[in-house]
Write a structure and sequence with these properties.
The structure holds two protein chains of two kinds.
Chain A: E1 6-11, E2 16-21, H1 24-30, H2 33-44, E3 58-62, E4 76-81, E5 88-93, H3 97-103, E6 108-112, E7 119-124, E8 127-132, H4 141-151, E9 158-161, H5 164-167, E10 175-177, E11 181-183, H6 188-194, E12 197-203, H7 213-229, H8 231-240, H9 245-251, H10 273-277, E13 288-292, E14 302-305, E15 324-325, H11 329-337, H12 344-357, H13 361-376, H14 382-385, H15 395-407, H16 410-415, H17 419-425, E16 434-435, E17 438-439, H18 449-457, H19 470-473, H20 489-506, H21 518-528, H22 535-556, H23 567-571, H24 586-597, H25 607-612
Parallel strand pairs in A: 1-6, 7-12
Antiparallel strand pairs in A: 1-2, 3-4, 3-6, 4-5, 7-8, 9-10, 9-12, 10-11, 13-14, 14-15, 16-17
Helix pairs in contact in A: 1-2, 2-20, 2-22, 7-21, 11-12, 11-13, 12-15, 13-17, 18-20, 20-22, 20-24
Chain B: E1 10-14, H1 24-34, E2 45-49, E3 54-58, H2 67-71, E4 77-79, E5 86-88, H3 98-102, E6 109-111, E7 116-118, H4 128-132, E8 138-142, H5 148-157, H6 161-165
Antiparallel strand pairs in B: 1-8, 2-3, 4-5, 6-7
Classes of the chains: A alpha+beta, B alpha+beta.
């Protein structure tokens, strides 16, 4: 019950698809999705493997709640060794693909080896086959999805695919499903491309069952009521989306601007949620068309947007004048504040291209920001950029590079290296704003201290979705802490990391945690799944998952020295706003964090910790 | 006591402008009818017109003179006198699909697992889709007054200039 109890193993080298029973002992210890797939991956691959070699594996995975009526329970993750980072990668996506996979009767699909020629996987319930993908190779995510549905004459098929960027080896390529939902970070799409796997197309009609329907309906109804009554999940997110944060984070002086040289962006209002709502003088319409939900989500934070038809990016191209997935906060920040561009239509266009060609707008925008600094300091010139005047605030440079990166062409191919490799190549590694090779998202850790520790210790490289202490430090959820203080942040980060691993592994969206604690999640899991799922057990599972990911990274060659931040955040003080004069106090938080984790001073899980968690 | 008087009937009322496309209606419908969370077997479908940014839930409107019922050669579709729903009897349905041809709206469909047709039966008078909808895009209201909310919205915009001058 809840789990389908079955996984599909796809050997791309041999071209075979086989069904296996899910390891239910592991399911009790790692729950599902992120946790359970990480267990499978770490058991099956050498941590030192080259992420782009056939020996790396890629797992698409649902959680036990995926496909049920629990709010937000439509999620799946892509777990692999990341192309961008060389660390454990787990990228989570919404949309409708996760439900389709679960309804076809699969908890997980493990891809191994490498196909000799482009293929796609086609799954109809328990029938799975690899089909020739040659006709889709070289085409965008949008065209691939549309044409697979046409080819099979079935509009109800759900598709997850890579765009041209993933084929061309852009290091931060995504897997995109349902046109504009993405397993976005760490280059999971790059790994998929390296296997010559263009797409996964699924139609599922078998149904998902839970252990105790009556108790489950009560638990999920209670959960939905909590979300509806909460100010963030009931009002803020549906109305403004994650973009509700743009002006808030700018106000507190934690909006990284122009490659983290500033912490406040003078153009923040121009790229904010409020701007997306504003009626344009030209045509009386707003950028935002409507909000949209992922499968089973009663929050509905998704943005559906449309670019002004006379804007230079679309005026001669009707295909981009239609509505599609609009700006979320992280994308608006990376494409905007990180590059100094404040044109909402240009950002929306760049975001469309990210979705269409399947690459991560966070790493892309941040890398363009780094390249702009390289350009302004003279480390690169128009000779390298192919004539692009790559100055901060150059709107056309941003949109041109978005198109080039999508196709892996021109200077876009170099942007596709990610900021770490790009800045090293041109002799300025200090200009890459990244941890473990992955670019920061939209919170400056000088103004939100806990996020510095979050980034430094995140197992998949810099990321806000591993412990979103912004909730506590800025929004006061579950209780307000001082964003400029380092005291108590080690414990806060650990608690968020462990709980988040449990939310992810259940198959739920982490945005529910603005309103829910594990007290809300436990009854939903307990009534759906075999075993007893208490808050205590979920915390233990979360901690086990965190340590398993850590062990993989250590075995892959990372050490405690990689739990670090770029010197800019540790030495160059914030110039304006409430955090003026502040640097991040990572050194004050990290030793305490290691101690609370039960790790040695070098950041290695102690024997006692390993034993306690049964690793 | 049955006085012989018909109960006030209710209708499913759909306001696409409020729909977010979350599919909670499909999930709830499938659980009630199939015993599992299985949107592929739902009697209500939500259509995502992606390039227009519109979501539209669609299901049987329970026509007074139902084409499906008239077309059925074995009288497997009858009126539930309590709710007014046109209900398929699985015991009588032979899976000929003539009703699926007759229905102008496409809201009655064949189920290849059971060999019978599927359509909305209003869940016996307490539709699960309406209860599950988080935004009130689907409501179950007085069948004679499905336009009441829209009337009220327009009424509130009516400018009665005479009173202003009085």
């Amino acid at each position: 019950m809840a789990w389908a109890r079955k996984l599909l193993r796809v050997d791309l080298t041999k071209g075979t698809c086989t069904s296996e029973r899910l390891n239910m002992d592991w399911a009790q210890r790692y729950l599902g999705q992120r946790g359970l797939a990480t267990k499978y991956l770490t058991e099956e691959i050498d941590p030192k493997v080259d992420p782009l070699s056939p020996d790396n594996k890629l797992i698409m995975t649902t959680g036990p709640l995926t496909g049920t009526c629990a709010s937000t329970a439509g999620r799946y993750s892509v777990v692999t060794k990341g192309a961008l980072t060389g660390a454990i990668a787990c990228s989570n996506s919404g949309g409708f693909f996760g439900n389709e996979m679960k309804n076809a009767g699969w908890d997980m699909i493990i891809f191994e080896g490498k196909s000799a020629k482009p293929v796609y996987l086609f799954v109809q319930d328990d029938k799975a086959e690899l089909l020739d993908g040659g006709e889709f190779w070289g085409t965008s995510v949008w065209d691939t999805e549309e044409n697979i549905k046409k080819k099979h004459q079935d509009p109800m098929i759900r598709v997850a695919s890579i765009g041209v960027s993933g084929e061309k080896g852009v290091k931060f390529a995504c897997v995109v499903n349902d046109m504009h939902r993405a397993a976005g970070r760490s280059g999971v799409g790059t790994v998929m491309g390296s296997k010559n796997l263009k797409a996964v197309a699924i139609r599922g009609t078998l149904g998902v069952k839970v252990k105790d329907v009556g108790a489950f309906m009560t638990a999920t109804a209670n959960g939905k009521a909590v979300l509806a009554e909460n100010a963030v999940t009931g009002q803020g997110l549906p109305t403004y989306g994650t973009q509700v944060l743009m002006n808030v984070i700018n106000e507190v002086g934690a909006l990284p601007t122009r490659n983290h040289r500033d912490v406040q962006f003078e153009g923040a209002g121009e790229i904010s949620a409020e701007k997306m709502h504003e009626k344009r003088a030209s045509d009386g319409k707003s950028n935002l068309i409507t909000n949209g939900a992922c499968f089973g989500c009663t929050i509905a934070c998704g943005r559906i947007s449309q670019i002004e038809r006379t804007h230079y990016t679309v005026v001669d191209r009707p295909q981009y004048q239609k509505a599609s997935g609009g700006l979320e906060y992280e994308a608006a920040w990376a494409l905007g504040a990180a590059t100094g561009v404040d044109d909402i239509d240009a950002l929306t266009f760049a975001n469309f291209i990210c979705n269409e060609q399947g690459y991560d707008p966070i790493s892309f925008g941040a890398t363009v920001g780094a390249a702009m600094e390289l350009f302004e300091t003279g480390a690169i010139t128009t000779k390298e950029t192919g004539g692009i005047e790559l100055k901060f605030g150059n709107t056309k440079a941003l949109t041109e590079l978005a198109e080039q990166t999508g196709l892996g062409e021109g200077f876009g191919a170099e942007i596709g290296l990610g900021s770490k490799r790009l800045c090293e190549k041109y002799g300025h590694p200090e200009m890459s704003m990244s941890v473990k090779g992955q670019e920061f998202p939209a919170y400056d850790s000088r103004g939100i201290q806990g996020m510095g520790l979050t980034y430094a210790t995140s197992n998949r490289g810099a990321c806000h979705l591993r412990s979103y202490t912004v909730a506590s430090e800025i929004l006061g959820i579950p209780e307000k802490t001082d964003p400029l203080a380092t005291e108590g942040k080690a414990g806060l980060v650990k608690a968020f990391q462990d709980a988040t691993a449990a939310f992810d592994s259940a198959g739920l969206c982490i945005f529910t945690s603005f309103a829910w604690t594990l007290e809300d999640v436990a009854p939903q899991l307990d009534s759906a799944c075999e075993g007893d799922w208490s808050v205590e057990k979920l915390l233990e599972v979360g901690e086990r998952i965190w340590n398993l990911e850590r062990q993989f990274n250590l075995a892959a060659g990372f050490t405690g020295k990689d739990d670090n931040l770029p010197a800019r955040l540790l030495k160059d003080a914030a110039k304006t706003g409430p955090a003026e004069g502040k640097v991040n106090g990572l050194g004050e938080m990290l030793p305490e964090y290691y101690q609370l984790r039960g790790w040695t001073a070098e950041g290695v899980p102690s024997n006692q910790t390993v034993e306690r968690l049964g690793l | 006591m049955n006085t012989g008087k018909r109960l006030m009937q209710k209708s499913l009322h759909i306001d696409p402008g409020k729909c977010t496309g979350c599919l909670q209606c499909e999930i709830a419908c499938s659980l009630d009818n199939e015993g599992a969370f299985n949107p592929a077997k739902s009697r209500i479908k939500v259509f995502d017109f992606h390039v227009e940014g519109r979501f539209v839930p669609y299901t049987c409107t329970q026509c007074a003179e139902a084409w499906c019922m008239k077309a059925c050669p074995v009288d497997a579709i009858s009126v539930d006198t309590l709710t007014g729903a046109k209900v398929v009897s699985d015991a009588l349905c032979v899976g000929c699909k003539v009703c699926t041809i007759a229905c102008p709206f496409g809201t009655i469909n064949y189920n290849q697992t059971t060999g019978k047709v599927l359509k909305c039966d209003l869940c016996g008078g307490d539709p699960e889709c309406a209860k599950a909808c988080p935004t009130s895009a689907i409501t179950f209201i007085d069948a004679d007054w499905t336009g009441l909310e829209r009337m009220r919205d327009w009424a509130s915009k009516t400018d009665s200039g005479t009173r202003a001058e009085a």
